[in-house]
Amino acid sequence: MDAxxxxxxxxxxxxxxxxxxxxDTRHFKPGQLVSEEQLQRMLQAMHQAPSVGLMQPxxxxxxRDAALRVQITSLVEAERQATAxxxxxxxxxxxxxxxxxxxxxxxLLALVLPPDDGTIFGRRSMxxxxxxxxxxxxxxxxxxxxxxxxxxxxxxxMFEPQALGALxxxxxxxxxxxxxxxGPVDSFYDAPMLELEHWRQRRPLDELLMTxxxxxxxxx
Amino acid sequence: MDAxxxxxxxxxxxxxxxxxxxxDTRHFKPGQLVSEEQLQRMLQAMHQAPSVGLMQPxxxxxxRDAALRVQITSLVEAERQATAxxxxxxxxxxxxxxxxxxxxxxxLLALVLPPDDGTIFGRRSMxxxxxxxxxxxxxxxxxxxxxxxxxxxxxxxMFEPQALGALxxxxxxxxxxxxxxxGPVDSFYDAPMLELEHWRQRRPLDELLMTxxxxxxxxx
Lengths: 220, 220
What we know:
2 copies of one chain form a homodimer. Chain A has 220 residues and is of the alpha+beta class. Chain A has helices spanning 9-21, 36-47, 66-87, 91-96, 127-148, 161-167, 193-196; strands spanning 59-63, 107-113, 152-156, 175-183, 209-211. The first copy, chain A, has 7 helices and 5 strands. In chain A, helix 2 (36-47) runs antiparallel to helix 5.
């Protein structure tokens, strides 16, 4: 493999480092900007994601209208209250967590799954699953690109998709799947914020890794 | 931001480079191995993915039984034929494409969405979508880690999930979403193989990027 296509150990370790240090971010520095050059670099990286049958099932709406950002924030707040109710016994604990940075982040991007374009290649048997998984791959690219730019990104999924879709005037068959908050931060969390706040702890890899057939102890 | 948490321009560019050079791989060097050390590094990187409410909705079955690999390959072949039929006019063209490297790849991993664990945080309104999107993020981490190790990875989604689930004895509510082929390659494609083979061309980013509300020209 020629040098142009090869990654050496130092480069490999940079890539592992960005994967390890990436965080789902809810605390942003208010009143900041992301340069157009940075934004373009990151979005191009997102757009280099793989997708099933090359369908590229991701659309981004850059929210620039301040009044629209306020309306979106209200939808998220409504879903936050609905989530608190659904959580029952942990409702108060949940309401003390900071779950989004919509007001403070420099850039807000709405992530939309477009109407199905009928791609059959690689998704005849799992059409919706594979479109959503491809969209996930694209967001992870954006997340790592943002971290490499020393910027934070948070994926907010607390909203009613139909209500947000109506607000953004997405066509029938399209579905918003995320509100991506992007921008400068004061610092990055040392661990996922939900762990730092004692909401939930991650399980180690070896509990999720099996050989040949399903054997997970707890059946989950 | 201290040096430990900061990415400089050279490091940033390595990360953009791995994102740009990653390819969905179907051509592997046969008869190769991936070292346990490499495999562990890559799987840990995968496992560092974000997930909604920290639910970590990914399970991996490492396929080590050669007879099982043959059975899995048969399921994929059946779905390849079903796909060819569904494609109608492009059926012959499709059948000439190499769509998977199951026989040749060093390691085969079955990727399974586990039964829903009831996580409410961040997915009250979109439970299945957010689990699948999180799993997509994890695979993208693995993909980039593999590329940083100068290894190829291919995500094969041509199978009937129920038939594969039965073969792998996954519990009710779990669903296989991928067969991940991993291993050494002779070279990486310069562009997505589906483009090189003139199956389909990608659309440029600016067609998928809008401002404030949906405005895509072709409504797709």
